[in-house]
Amino acid sequence: MRITGGQSRGIILRSPLGLQTRPAVDALRESLFSSLGTRIEGCRFADLFAGTGSYGLEALSRGGVSGEFVENDSNCIRCLRENLARVSKSAGVDPEAFSVIKSDVFNWRVPESGKYDIVFADPPYADIVEIETKLFKLAEELLAVGGLLVIEKPADTELSPQGWFRIKQLGKKRGRGPSVGLWEKISP
Asked: Alpha helix locations (H) across 62-161?
């Protein structure tokens, strides 16, 4: 797994041994960030269920100016911190603008409402249906007006959050393979 674009393109990301993570595949991230285009430049982001940090680190490499990585697993945290140091050095950015937070996503103390332009969420696939309502409610609190929620999930898992509109779906169309949905809050 590597950074697919931006200043740190080609940097290989470290991940913990074993099956505790399911890192976002390079091709899917590349497709996502191509779709996001210039929206990444200057963005503030949160990477929830961050794992190795691949979504947030890709955003950093492509011009994201600040962000938080929220992860609960200690082995992932160690890898994420190492990845953050390497990617920020390669991109020539101050790593202090990015925080690694060891916390369960739903117990995390949100720093301020409406702080983020983009929220990336890559929850454990088995939990997605159970946490759907809480995840969209948290995203509503985190996102600035016009912000974007990006969720990775299995293609065969349908989400239908009230008050949200899916702009685009990328990746697999059927089955358990990964797909990414881009969501916006519907204006009242």
From this structure: 74-91, 128-142
Higher pLDDT, 181 or 23: 181
Is 0.85 topped by the overall pTM?
A: yes
With vertex at residue 145, the alpha carbon angle to CA 88 and CA 131, rounded to the nearest 5 degrees, is: 75
Distance of CA 143 to the CA centre of its chain: 13
Domain assignment present for residue 142? The answer is yes
CATH number of the domain at 93, please.
Answer: 3.40.50.150
Q: What is the largest CA-CA distance in the chain?
A: 46
Q: How far apart are CA 160 and CA 183, in angstroms?
A: 11
pLDDT at 188 over 80: no
Read off the DSSP letter of residue 63. T
d(CA 152, CA 170): 9
